[in-house]
Design goal:
single chain; alpha+beta; eight-stranded mixed β-sheet; 3 helices; 18% helix
Amino acid sequence: HRLFNGAWSAPVTRELFVRGRAVAAVIYDPQHRLIGLVEQFRIGLVNDVSRPWCKEVVAGMAEKGESDEDVMRRELWEEAGIKPQELRRICDYYSSPGGTNERLTLYCALADLRHAGGVFGLPEENEDIRFSVYNEDKVLNRIYDGEYNNAATLICLQWLVANKHQLGRPG
């Protein structure tokens, strides 16, 4: 590749984990001030001193020909039993560009969460996903306490703090 000074770099070998497009969404009920998050076992946390389960936003990988919105709607149903009223795009980012090409598109999925929750996931994908609903203040007041230990969830929750007042809460 070209260097900043215009010269070419020496030959270099790097590992690249090819992942492609992914989507994720925090589920938010502005009318009742509720946030929905999933929890599941994550191999990357197997040696974490606290626990190998990750409390996170709903997420999934895009399949060929699927739009980001279609992936998000599919994943919301598979992982949380939710059909969102609306999807609001938050941003796109690369999860770890030093070693993977995975690009995430983040959303806020607006939904009525009053009667939501349970265990979901596809048996053929060996998924065991618990979907829980929390009071908005309980989640947003504890963003940096270590319970939410992944970038997609932190970015979504930070966005929610900055933008929740625009999401249809009654006056």
